[in-house]
Amino acid sequence: MSLKRNAKEYIWEGNPNFWDKHSPILFPIVGTLKNGQYNYENKSYQLSRHGFARDNVFYVEETFQNKAVFSFRSSEETAKYYPFDFELKIIYTLEENYLTIKYEVTNNGNTKMPFSIGGHPAFALPDTFENYSLLFEDDESLITYSLENNLLSERTTVLKLSDHKLPLSYSLFEEDALIIKKLESKKIQILENGKPYVEISLYDFPNLGIWTKNNAPFICLEPWHGYSDSIKSTGNLFEKEGILILSAKKTFETSFRIKI
After folding, report:
1. Angle, alpha carbons 148-150-154 (nearest 5°)
2. CB 201, CB 190: distance < 8 Å
3. Cα-atom radius of gyration of the chain, to the nearest Å?
4. Using an 8 Å Cβ cutoff, are 71 and 89 in contact?
5. Is the peptide bond before 28 cis (omega within 30 degrees of 0)?
6. Contact (Cβ atoms closer than 8 angstroms) between residue 236 and residue 254
7. What residues of the chain score a pLDDT lower than 50?
8. How far apart are CA 32 and CA 47, in angstroms?
9. What's the predicted TM-score (pTM) here?
10. How many separate helices (H) and strands (E) can be counted in the chain?
11. pLDDT at site 161
């Protein structure tokens, strides 16, 4: 909800006039399911956009001087929407001007478990929005997928970087978020008037969402494992594009880092 250095706040305040969240976790899906549902073992389950973890209480498992571990476990209530036995941990670690956010997903069940997971940090932009740009580690062309009714369409746009940079403007987000299935860069800097402001390191996250709302003073850089269903989705969660499949009694780990 907050990330400060020298009393300066870097995380979006959550003003409900624009968007009332700060940095939600996306689990057990990222994005939207076709018709808001999926099928598993001849039964249909309803699962809302980005899953339910962000709307639930996490328990404080451990605290240290520079580290906190939060845990969320499956229950009879979560089984109504997602019939798998899991534990999700979020581990925050502060080191100098870095915050590392690590996710651990454990499959406590006896069958394979399909899931997606992602971050959704919204960074506050106190200056005029157009005074910011994104500096990518690689000078690549970004292939972005358009959304139709919150589902991935087959329409793509190629955003060509200029000297690794993508200038920000609200017109980029006229059709909602920029969905990037494949990203070469593992580091992205937000530049404020050409100077480094915040850097995010994606590590092993293969997918990225970039999003804001019209006239809102924030930008979301979202590291993802997975994304919305396509308009051609079958509804089988195991066949969902970008889904992760975790074997019984195994743990999946992934992390990203924010540098101020």
Report:
1. 40
2. no
3. 18
4. yes
5. yes
6. no
7. none
8. 8
9. 0.94
10. 1, 23
11. 93
